Every structure is written in C-alpha cells, then in structure tokens.
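Intended use. Records like the one below are meant for learning the mapping from a protein sequence to its folded structure. Do not use them to infer anything beyond what is encoded.
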Amino acid sequence: MTAPASFDFCSPGLANRRRCMLSLASGIGWLAFQPPASAGGQLEEPLVDSVRTALSAAVGNKAPPLPEFSDTASRIHYLRWLGAMSERLQRRKTDFETRKEFLQTVWYESRRSGLETTVVLGLIQVESAFRKFALSSVGARGYMQVMPFWPRVLGGHDGDASRLFHMQTNLRFGCVILRHYLDRENGNLFMALGRYNGSRGKAPYPQAVLEATRQWEFSPVSAAG
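Structure written out for the chain above:
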C-alpha cells in the first residue's frame, strides 16, 4: 500500500482547506492501518571467534536462492507446496511474482540453515506480519525482525543495518541467527525461539510462533487432491 500524498501547507481558500483536511485525515487513517511490528529483540552477546567466523561465513555466501532437486518427485513436491503457500499468502501479498520470490527464498534459506520452513513462516507471521519494511520500537528490521547490531557483529555488509530490509539478506540473517540459537539450546525449539525474541524461558512468544506455524503446514496428499 502506498501512503497518500499530503500537503506541506494549507493554502488559503475554503476549497483548498477542505482538500488539505481530507488529505491529512487520509494520511492518519493510512498510518493507523499499519500494524505494529513485534519487538524482535535478540540480545547482543559476546561470541567466541570460531562462532563469529562460522556465522559470518553462513551469512556471507552470495548464492542465489534457487532450489535444487535431486529427483522429479522432490521438484513436484516443491511446486505443490509453492502453489498451496501462494494461495494462503495471497491476502498479504497480492502480486504473484512477489509471493513466488518470497516463498522461494524462504524455502531456500530455511533448508540451507537446517530449519523447518513452517517454523520460519510462523516466525515471520508473528514478527512482521509478512511486511518487508517492518520496523519495531527497538529497531529490529524486516521480515524476521533482525536486530541492527548483527551486521556489525558479523562483519558483513559493511555493518550497514539498512540492508536488513533487503529480502534475501533479512531472511539469510534471520535463519542463520535462529539456527545459532537452536544450536545454543541443544535443539530445544521452545528455548531457541525465546532467545530469538529476547524472552528466553518465557512462554508467550514461542507459543505464538508455534501456533502460527500450524497455519503453514503442508500435506502433499491433500494438496494433490
């Protein structure tokens, strides 16, 4: 959605004043329509050199998000998944090519990091409601609400946090960070999600993500039928 145009000044004259007031009211309505971003508050923690190096390498690979398949059955499964998820996401992203690129990247980055794609979609739903330019009150950015200290800590992208609004960059960072937290928590997804949100050990955020995850489950049998 594009914000309506507004006037810098209300010029004299009744007609102009009316247009100005209508414009201001429209602008306020547009802002009120935008849902707030979740405060994805990952906490900055000291990283040992080996971990920082591994994470930097993980986010630094420039490979394009193009899924590859070892056999025809795997490709058919992916295409059915893509079709089903595209239908579910249509209300939030109306343009087909935009949905396709987004879902393709989520599929690629989640599998690249060894994560369940449904979990990543559930996390994105809770964190940003699928809004590319979401910005939280604590500065977390983009689809996966990545905190701006991460580019600096990992030494990539010249420390430029604005690049976290780039789709693949954001999804790459988010997936790598969640994978890191999952490893830190010895595979405990509940605890890893809490760490991702900066609320480790508290139930509301992990429960919200796991609940959202159910909306993105995919059954190839029902999809084919």
